[in-house]
Amino acid sequence: MADLKHRLNILLDNGNAREDMSAEHAAFIRGMQLYTLRSLVPYGLIASTFNASICVAFMAAHAPSSALIMWAGVMALMGLLGLRTSLRASRRATAPRPRSVQALWRPITESTLLGMAWAVCPLLFVPQLQGFDLALIICVCGGMMAGGAYVLSTLPGAAVPFVVSLSFGLAMGILRSDGGVGRFTLLALLVCFTVVMLRTTFWNHRNYIAAWLQQEKLKDQAKQLEKKQGVISLLLNEFEQAASDSLFELDEDHRVVRPSSVLAERTEFRTEQLIGQHVASFFDGTNVEGRPAFQALLAALEVNGEIHNLRLPVRKKGEVTVWWRVSAKPIYNEAGVFEGYRGVASNVTEKYEAERQIYKLAHFDSLTGVPKRERMLKALEEAVNAPHGEAKPFAVHALDLDRFKTINDVYGHSVGDAYLKATAERLQEIIGPKNVVARFGGDEFVILQNDITGRGEAMAMAVTIQQALAEPVNVDGSNAQSSVSIGIAVFPEHAGTPAELLKFADLALLASKGAGRDTACFFDTDLNDDVSERVAMEDDLRHALAQNQFRLNFQPIISARTGELRAMETLIRWTHPERGEVGPDTFVPILEQAGMITTVGDWIIREALREAATWDDSIRVSINLSPLQVRNRSLITTVTHALAQSGVDPKRVDFEITETALFDDAEESLSALHALHRLGVTISLDDFGTGFSSLSLLRIFPFDKIKIDKSFVQQMESSEECLAIVRSVVGLARSLGMRTTAEGVETETLADMLRAEGCAELQGYHFSRPMAADALVAAGLLPRRLAVHDNAGKPDLLALPEVAALQRAV
Question: Left if phi > 0, otherwise alpha if psi is -120 to 50, otherwise beta: which for 473?
């Protein structure tokens, strides 16, 4: 019995069986079937009662019988039972819930009984009717079959018995009727109609199940999506809390929707205040640095385009600007309609400040804060390459502080640094915001003066700069003061490229220095020619030493009291095969600037000592040293080797230096001079009186001799001031135990005046012009040793017994 019941349950539920359906879903579908069936029962009862009433009324008028009364009673009873069931179901109306298979037995039984009750009608009354009456009954029964198949289609177990019972009763009635052969045609039509109704029932049921499963699948997916969104929201919230990034979402009007608490905290708004805020309202469009990115944001929003890596300043309370890097992608639905943005904003304030610091270190001078060379070159490029019609004349000023090294040496580097900072501040104040000043290194500055009307405006700024920088700078009680030399090049008058403008401004600066410093000069084409000539001469000088184009001349230095020959000053000369004789005033500065003076100077020392080795031991040799030679560490080694190779007594060697040798790297220069003193040579201060720090040099180093500059000597006859200066220098040297040599003595009168003032030695054209040693020997002005041979045949240098005749001639 239990096995039979199990099989019946499977048969009843077979319409719900699907491979992809779980038991839980099957139970819920049964609940849905019962719920739908109960909701349609009232309509079915109304239709059934109405159709039964039509049949009873019609049959009562045409073929009344006791069977009709009984059938009418049965249909009334079925209607009352259905009404009772409907009322009970309405009072217990609940949402669909899972139901067991057993719960389907009652509706199936009720449907089967109702179908059997309706089957009695055609079974009893069709044989009695003909024509229109027969057609009416058949139509009513067919309508009941169609209605039952539709109403009960959600539960095939109830629909099939109803349709089959009614169809069976109608078929039996047709067979019992006296319709002849036509009844079989009608019977065939009934079978076809019944099959169609049954197939329709099962088709509707399958669609019902499929639709419900699809709906449930979508619900499951929605639940899963909601669950995932919850997890993602939780993770994103944790991510926002831990990181510097904030996620945001915008609607189609670019207004914030569903803001997070993290976004509210970082924008200093409440969450409810953020809702509906336009995204552009969070950023400061007035910030100069962030304005280009803000404009790019507005442009992207205008076309609903992608927002990619825009660094924007955030509107926040306080003085510190916060920077966000914002990226967002537009969102479109399946129809291609724009729905808004989803994006992320990252706090990059620290990174931005670090980048700014790195950029500042790379492009701005760390000491003065003004731009470096690269920024100036960029500004010049922009000024030169301005769009056609917008390029305006401008000037480039090359500045160099005169004698800045002296400030460093006298006051110290800290004062020098403070002086440079003050100079940069003064320059920035003078030029204003539309012009640019840059430091090119050391004490060199370059100024770009934009939008000038002509040379007059450029020179006016140069004069203003000179006046401002002439004011002393007080640093910790010390007043540091210097002047400035300025070279000016004008665009487009002088050049059309940044490189040429800087080059020509430098050339003008060289001319300004050559004119006596503290001046301002414009570039001139002759300066460019001079530079070309200078470059060609530098190239020739690089080959002059190897090709023996240099030679040494010597000029006598005599005793002012006795007229005896005391020394010979060594002077270099250059004879070029094409240029001819080139004066030292022309090529020596080039040797110094080209870095060749050390090599040539070493050659001079070796050659001068080699020549002096052939002279009488009473005659000293005087050699000029360049400031670069004095600072070169190899000088001591060169002098030591030259003395050893020549055999010249160090006491016969005198090195002459100018005060400029001690301006740069004074400590190192003094160290070199003391080392030379320890070798036994003497040191003379040349061109004394021409510099503003000559007296201070006598305090820091014990010079052996002072050479009075010829500019004072040659004006002694006409200038009381020059005479007083010479008298003072001689008296100063005497009190310090130093000898004095007067340069530029060209007349006997000057020689007598210098003897009267007590000058120790005289030098000048009055006694002899510089000549080669052989020429001086031939003229009887330079005594040599005689080379004789001993018994071994080796030469021996013997001093001449008498040089009085030469001395009298001098």
Answer: beta
